[in-house]
Write the structure tokens for this entry.
Amino acid sequence: MPDGKGGEVWAFEVDGYGNAIFMDDANVPSLSGLPLLGSADRNDPLYRRTAALAWSPRNPYFFAGTAGEGIGGPHVGMDMIWPMSLITRALMNDDLAVVGACLKTLKATHGGTGFMHESFHKDDPTKFTRSWFAWANGLFGDLILDIEKRAPRCSPSVIERSTTMIAANRRQLLGGAGLAALGSAAPGLARVQGTAATKPDLFIGTGGHGHTFPGPSLPFGMVQLGPDTDNSRWDACSGYHRTDGSIMGFSHTHLSGTGIGDMLDVLVVPTRGSLELDPGKLDDPDKGYRQRFSEEHAEPGYYRVKLESGVLAELTVTERTGFHRYHFPKGAGHILIDFAHMIIDVWDKGIIVDQASLAIDADGVLTGSRRVHRWAKGRHMHFAMQLSRKPSRVEFFGDDNKPASAGAKGVTGNKLKIALFFDEAGGDPILVKTGISAIDVAGAKAALAGEAPGWDFDRAATAARRAWAKELDSVRVEGGTPAQRTIMASALYHCFLAPTLFTDRDGRYVGMDRQVHQAPADAPAFSTYSLWDTYRALHPLLTLVQPERAAMFTRDLVRQTQQSPYGPPVWQLQGVETGCMIGWHSVSVLAEARAKGIEADYAAAWPNIRRRAFDRTFKDSDGSLGRGYYYDLGFVPADKIWESVSRTQEYAYDDWAMAMLAEAAGAKDDAETLRKRSRNYRNVLDAATRFAKPKFADGSWWANYDPIQLGHDVKKHRDYTEANGWQATFLNQHDVFGLIDHFGGDAAFEKQLDALFNAPSTLPENAPPTFRGWSANTHMATSPTTTSPISTPMPAPRRRRRR
């Protein structure tokens, strides 16, 4: 029959409503499955026109629920019964050949081409209820959507009103209320409905000193796309702060929760009006390309915001690509790519970005490369970008915003930009997809070709939502308030952002020796190992809720330990050892994994671990300074090396972890030596005052000791790492009973522990910003012991019954 907008299409009947051009929730999945059944050619123009109509918002029956309740509505006839065994088999199988065979059999059960209403036997309708039909309908509809690899193009509100699967995959539905309702029809398949996973709030952590960002990523994904509001102050280490009133644009890499900033690669600025090449200042958003914004929305895998230029921006991702959809008002518009954009800090000196290039080819593919010397000094970034619409004209800009010659197809220098102009930007949205790589442009292009071959933004967003739904569903809680459950879910979400994938699709990655290596398909390389922050709790958590990924990270850390000139990683970012914080706590993560039975070639890592443990000439980063003093004196002296007390304590803990790895490598003598040396923590614990105190090279203690202060010279702080004497006193992660004995026994230890919690929560004037908002006495006072990653305590003279 004719369709005014699409041409000739197939006609489908809406059950109970006479003939209509619109297709109901039986016919649309039927249409989607016809190519799989061999009943239609997917490329046939008639089929394509009909499918386009069926999957468009112009089909109110299927998408808006005009004649029912949308997909899977409970308005089906009571005499229509599903062939349950075939449907269950199809729903539970990932082999499309098996699924296809099930669908063919379903088709044969009754006349017609439908899988749902038209495919039912009418054996015994008395066992089923209308609610059962709604869930079954939704489950099978999800199967068809999975096969089609597409998502309905309707608004989220319509999806939320639907009774079906859009927010979860078919296995999650089978594990919840849907299958429970089907229990009488499929004995043995139902299970008790679990507590529903709580939704995270992605804006938690984006204020204060949280340093998180609300943009989309996949769990542990390489691309972490999102809005940038600031790139210069400490509170915006992530590039975003919720108190900022303007957005600079949308960049493809971010750090979450760190105390130092970097990344923010490939900033995309969609806007209108005159071309501005600089963002302007945060406190003056009317100048530069900054834009005020409203209607901001974020959820795992998807972000949306309305910019003051009238552009509605939507973002989603695959593992290695960022996907943008920009809805411009009618009239001219442009998209600026600011390839000079990055985090800028007050101590940055000299050239921070160099070896940059931008070029556009005959097919309109924009490519770029640059080297960045920020925190991870010397890291490389390459990208490949495609637009869904050809721009009316293109202009390149070199250093100091100098325009390239007319008609230029590229530019080189350090700080580069390109503007893509559209004489008519309105109408269909402009889509932008960007692949990235740390290796080369070819790797970025491969990401585009392999992960974003088409322009189906909704499909990509749905896939990202489903990926997060699966991961977040790994932990469920009962009790508490809704706000507490949201906080828990938000924390879990942030736990699954890093480490980040650092391997191209072909397995190449940059090792910590700055060379290109090839990773096995089942053992990719990762970046963003914030180990001082994560070894106590995040990595132990992952062994419980993400054991397969924990194993991946374990094998990756073994490999990085082999390749790094520093041995066991300290704080690895983009293949660069930043040496940030103290200790080399990757050995803790490895020892934890071995203790919990994760298989890895620990012996392969041992040679470089042993060098870190014993070789005075082995290269040091900031994280391992003072090892010579530690070997010779049994402690790091406060008048020689900064943060000496905490270094002594944490080096001792790493000795304990390395002892476990020495055993794994068969180095029993080394293991015994390291165990004995791990007692060095006692050398900075004054048994007389029962405090961890700065000790000088001559063996004397800080005379006028004040446990509130961060160090013996308050103007220079500090002898402790983000702690003071109260907290450091109880920083023991491997020898608690030895600590008790050193303090003089149970009573003395308990008295000091009570004093910790009863003392005033006073912060010194020179406390770093990381202390603000924390109780001075309890920050990290108990976390090392209550979340100690290696649960086997050091042998002690005796064990006590704790009351």
About this structure: The mean pLDDT is 81. The CA atoms of residues 64 and 747 lie 70 Å apart. The two ends are 82 Å apart (CA to CA). The first helix runs from residue 27 to 37.
